[in-house]
Design goal:
Layout lengths: L7 H34 L5 H30 L3 H18 L8 H24 L1 H4 L5 H28 L6 H19 L10 H21 L1 H30 L5 H21 L1 H7 L1 H19 L5 H27 L7 H30 L3 H5 L1 H12 L11
Helix pairs in contact: 1-2, 1-4, 1-6, 1-7, 1-9, 1-10, 2-3, 2-4, 2-8, 2-14, 3-4, 3-7, 4-14, 6-7, 6-10, 6-11, 6-13, 8-14, 9-13, 9-14, 9-16, 10-13, 11-12, 12-13, 12-16
Length: 409
């Protein structure tokens, strides 16, 4: 099996990450969070934080609860690619309609954001499950890293375009720009990724069988000591990662006074360092083993989150964010490669459904806690303080997991 970045299937798979990263960067992380919390809701009493936390938690809860069963359905109905297309289009359409959301339209923004986030995060379940189809075991670590690295490049380009629109006072044009960017660069994946093979079961029967099978996968994974501990460690540290991603721009804007242009500049720096980190660590994931790479990344994140609590300077926040960026792509790519080692052939969608269940459930808890603590104390710093505990605890549990060794001997 080819393992070149320029293999048609691998390149189109990576390009999908390039496409969806426009949503992750602009809508989920940098510009729309600040627009929604400060303009649409108003964040004087930190109510914007509360509403943003609710929107992220509701959407992630839906994805978390449905993704394991949808993974089973996609395997039995032979509809993995169809689900990828459907979820992507849901995200694209909801994102485009954000252009209609104005000051005071709290519920409209809430509903559209939930739909867009469900489409984005739900699609990732099926996107991830293609990894085993396009790369052999020895090279999944580097292919996983290539996908994240290409995604960071997509973030950089989409944010650069968004910066031009923000500077010319056309911020509401940013949302449809993201929708066009997402759908345009997703097309190669829709065309070149492996097609759904054979005639699957009817959807109703596939749903029943998928539910039963996925429940069996959950029980089987939970009964295995190492898989159970991996999932628990992943739940904790991914909670920290997700919370940082969805609230970093709001913290920078509200607590440190970053302008929209400064936020875009900050995130561009983070994406460049994440891109560099993902490419630099692509081969070490296979040669050192994903467990070692994840552990090193977690130590970096512990340091960053502790330091950020004490930062009052924009310049120092830039430095801390750059350090976090170096570990961002690395921890995501290495974790995905680590988990792939547990998957029996033919069960990719079901296992990645469980993977999504754990990852998205953690995205329910963290943002909700951050928003609630911030609203109750009227101060974002206490909400930041707890994040380092998630990384520390997750790293400790991960050390007890057997596995995650080098793919290349």
């Amino acid at each position: 099996m080819k393992t070149s970045l320029f293999d048609r299937k691998i390149f189109s798979w990576c390009l999908f990450d390039f496409a969806n990263s426009s949503y992750s960067a602009v809508i989920a992380a940098v510009i729309f969070p600040v627009y929604y919390t400060t303009v649409v809701v108003g964040n004087d009493a930190n109510l914007g934080d509360l509403w943003w936390g609710r929107a992220i938690s509701v959407s992630m809860a839906f994805v978390a609860l449905s993704s394991p069963f949808l993974g089973g359905i996609s395997d039995y109905a032979r509809a993995k690619k169809k689900f990828l297309v459907a979820y992507t289009l849901l995200c694209v359409l909801a994102t485009a309609f954000l252009a209609l959301v104005d000051r005071g339209m709290v519920m409209a923004g809430f509903v559209l954001l939930v739909l867009a986030n469900v489409g984005m995060e739900g699609g990732i379940v099926f996107y991830n499950s293609f990894l085993n189809d396009i790369a052999d075991n020895e090279h999944q670590g580097r292919v996983s890293a290539w996908g994240y690295a290409t995604g960071y490049l997509g973030s950089i380009i989409s944010l650069a375009v968004a910066l031009v629109l923000v500077k010319t006072d056309h911020i509401t044009f940013v949302w449809p720009m993201v929708a066009v960017f997402f759908v345009m660069f997703s097309l190669p994946a829709f065309i070149f990724l492996p097609a759904d093979q054979g005639k699957g079961q009817k959807l109703s029967k596939a749903a029943r069988d998928g539910f039963a099978t996925t429940w069996g996968v959950l029980k089987r994974m939970w009964s295995d000591r190492d898989q159970r501990r991996f999932l628990l460690a992943y739940f904790l540290y991914e909670d920290g990662v997700n919370t940082v991603i969805v609230f970093s721009s709001i913290f920078a804007s509200t607590t440190l006074g970053f302008t929209s242009e400064q936020l875009i500049g900050l995130y561009l720096v983070v994406q460049v360092t994440a891109l560099a980190g993902a490419f630099l660590m692509a081969r070490p994931i296979d040669y050192w083993g994903p467990k070692k790479v994840v552990s090193l990344s977690l130590i970096l994140w512990m340091v960053v989150t502790i330091v950020v609590y004490f930062i009052y300077s924009k310049a120092f926040f830039f430095v801390a964010a750059s350090m976090a960026g170096l570990g961002l792509g690395t921890i995501q790519a290495a974790t995905r490669a680590f988990f792939a080692q547990f998957i029996p052939p033919g069960d990719e969608s079901k296992y990645f459904g469980v993977y999504s269940l754990v990852g998205k459930t953690s995205a329910v808890v963290g943002p909700l806690i951050f928003g609630t603590v911030s609203s109750m104390t009227n101060n974002q710093r206490p909400a930041v303080a707890a994040i380092s505990v998630l990384f520390i605890t997750g790293c400790i549990i991960l050390q007890t997991v057997r596995g995650g060794k080098a793919n290349v001997r």
